[in-house]
Amino acid sequence: MNRRYVLSMGVSLVSLSLMVASSGHAWAQTQPATGEIALETVTVEGQVGSGTGPVNGYVPNRTTTGSKTDTPIEEIPQSVSVIGREEIEDRQAQKVDEALRYTAGVFAQPYGLDSDTDWFFIRGFDAGQTGVFLNNLPLYQYGFGGFYIDPFVLERIEVLKGPSAALYGGSSIGGLVNLVSKRPTTEPLRYVETGINSWGNGYAAFDFGGAVDKDKIWSYRLTGKVSGGGWETEIAEDFRGVIAPAFTFRPSAATALTVLASYQHMDLMHTGGFLPYVGTVVPASFGRISRRFYYSEPDIDLYRRDQTMVGYEFEHALNDIWTIRQNFRYAYTDSRERGPYPYGYLDPATGFPVSTPTGPNNLLYRIGFQHHTVVNTASLDNQAEAKFDTGPLSHKLLLGLDYKYYNIDHIQESGGGTPLSATNPIYGTPQGPTVPYLDQNLTMNQVGFYAQDQIRFGTGWIATLNGRYDYVTTKSTDTVGNANFDDTAGEFSGRLGLGYEFANGMTPYVALSRSFNPVIGSDFSGNAFAPEIGRQFEVGLKYKPTAFDALITVSLFDLTRQNTLTSDPVNPFFDVQLGEVRSRGFELEGQANITEGLKALAAFTAYDIEITKDTNPLLIGNRPNVVPEIMASGWLDYTVQDGPLRGLGFGAGVRYVGFSYVDNENTLEVLAATVFDAGIRYTRENFTVALNVNNLFDNEYVSSCDTQFTCNYGAGRVATLKASYKW
């Protein structure tokens, strides 16, 4: 039994002991003479109904994503999905991309269960690097200079689908994910939780909050989590922790300042991924490579990250019309990674990688790799909001000026790696030296001015008008490679939306949008790449029934992504911007609190994605690799409300992901997969014990292949047991 497994068990047991001890103390304080348990009400800053506060069950009412103002979700002329804290807890999602598994229009975890990164595609396009926002401020990522957010510190996970630069500036063409932090409470909040999964990974977490003074001018929130232990991949283990303090100063109803901060440490070994098509999707001569196969070297395997963030949200109402806001965040990450990774099988005769095993030992070809990456980034968003009428028109006008600074200083090295048997791995062979191929310092500055007018008129008309202009500068110096360029670009983005809100809860809408996303790099001649351009036409319907609490969203869209990179036909080691991809699709999503104890989710996605321009004419009309065109999911959750089984809850879900292609030539397929999840829990007074099992029937499947050398298994069956207590 390894050191970190012991640590994970210790963390869980100590936390459980503290819960029992604190519960006895709390019962002694709160139990009246009748013997009944008196429970105090806990309220959170930004109550149910707020755009950043808790979601009532599974059904959101308001959001700030898609408007940057506190807006009813049906008034936003784009498809928006909101995953609230209760849904995250019911499914025990341990990563952001895991929480997105049941969301329409999102292909979550395309590269399997990655222990250090969240991956997702929105409307067919990768959004994991340039489509991540935290509290409506960008968490821009380039190369290995990304950020990791533990979902335990989040109140909501929200998805805005389609081009969104009209509000947010340069961002993923397919859409974005906005993470919403937990915020300070004005009433006492005391919560502890501990758990362990069937891979031997345990954790302990806490969430405290409340007012500091009797007038509730000062309030705080302190959230933290520590975890460690094993993973599905053999040998691999991790240790990580996060702490996120926050406080709010509210001297009056017109003024509030909230400071949000966090520190996170990660120390882990590599898991999953980078396996050949033959031996995973289809059997090799020896069968299939084990899903638990560890491909690196335990003596040198390294992934370590230290990440810090601090920022604030300031709001002041000048009068009944004008409100001003300023939101700011600085973020820093320092990450190191080292270890070989496989790239196909070794051909002993040539020493190069091939697609099928050629020798009796089934040797995998491995490449040595390491990097050291440091990122400093800052974001500032100034806003002025005005509410007023002009004749029959009611306006909510938003004017904004924002700035994004991103600097990455990184060195990447590659070199010789020794082969490793896929069927009988023997570790410990010394690895060859690595040589730098990139030593880059890159700085991006983006300044944007934007305006939005949300107009209501007539008996139910809602118009949304957006315009934004961005000026972006990018400068890169590379001391060992050719990543030397200096570029400026100016881009206009816009959105026009129109909807009508019927008395029966139906709101049909139509929207046009234009967006951009900066592309870092240069062509063979050293010319910097121009931004990608996205154009979308979307029609949809948002329905909030009057008979029960639910939100049903239906959308049809036609999205084109231009200026995509494609191989230079003259210089094969370089790219040119002559590509175009079109994504057309239908999305259906339902979230419902059907009765007091019955909640439901349903999602269906159908796409038609094709390459419409490319330097290789044989690719035109094909589907891009990795992305499935059909996805569906459903989740049903019921908690007994009365009788001797009161507090007993059950949840069950199913996820379907259609087939995808390995290559843009569409010659190899990754099979479709269906996975079932389930959960059971019991709550008595303030105690809750829950057991969730993902991939209940242990379906062995491949999530996707980026090439025939880089395929990724989906996560196997894992059971997570947790206990929590609040007082």
Describe what is shown at a glance:
With 727 residues, this protein is mainly β.
Task: Tell me what the structure shows.
Residues 1-28 form the signal peptide. A motif (TonB box) lies at residues 41-47. Pfam families: Plug, TonB_dep_Rec_b-barrel. This protein is mainly beta. The protein is 6% helix and 54% strand. The chain has one domain (3-726): TonB-dependent receptor, beta-barrel domain (Maltoporin, Chain A, Beta Barrel).
- Poorly predicted runs: 1-48
What gyration radius follows from the Cα positions, in whole Å? 26 Å
Which fold does the CATH topology refer to?
Maltoporin, Chain A
How many domain modules? 1
Secondary structure class reads mainly beta
- In DSSP terms, counting alpha (H) and pi (I) runs of 4 or more, how many helices? 4
The overall pLDDT, averaged over residues, is 92
**First-to-last CA distance:** 35 Å
CATH architecture: Beta Barrel
Give the strand content: over 45%
GO biological process, one term: siderophore transport
Biased composition (Polar residues): 61-70
GO molecular function, one term: signaling receptor activity
Membrane topology: Multi-pass membrane protein
